[in-house]
Amino acid sequence: MVDTGTWVPQARRGRRRFLLLILAVVVVTGVAGFALAASGVLDGVSHVIRGEPPAWAEIVGLVICVLGLAAAIAAFWYLVRSGIYRRNARSRLWAESWSRRRRLVRQVRGTAPYQPEELPLLQRTARQLIDQPKLLLPLAALGVLQTGQAFLQWSPYFAAVAGFLLVGLMVAGLAARRDVRRARAFLAEHE
Is residue 122 part of a domain? Predict the structure, then answer.
């Protein structure tokens, strides 16, 4: 277990590593997209990327995009104002390694035996699992936004991206709900 006096800098380092990973993925994706666009590889598939939507689809797409954007802003606002974002950002779990966090989650889920000396950290893990569905709200709103893009662009590419994103969000939502039940049962048993 991490010493009490050193977990804050380690948590910052853990958050920093996570944010740098996200930034690296975004930069690599942007550079790859720019390289593909500049090389002309995508010129032959413009009908897949850009379609000709009917008037009703443009209006529906625009309305869905605006609703998705408003919902995303509201969801981010809710996370910040309710304190969920701050609790997550200041969590001691950021000081733990990725494999250790996975072990803690397995112990809270009940798929692995828990260690009594880790009970405070396991309770913190359970509380974060209970907050997990709320962290999916902005992603769900961005899924709605992507669905609006599929109507606006009227192309197989955007429809596939929206479908893939919505299926992924459904799976994540179901997994988060299952984890909430298990985390609540763990807290009820160990508090």
Answer: yes
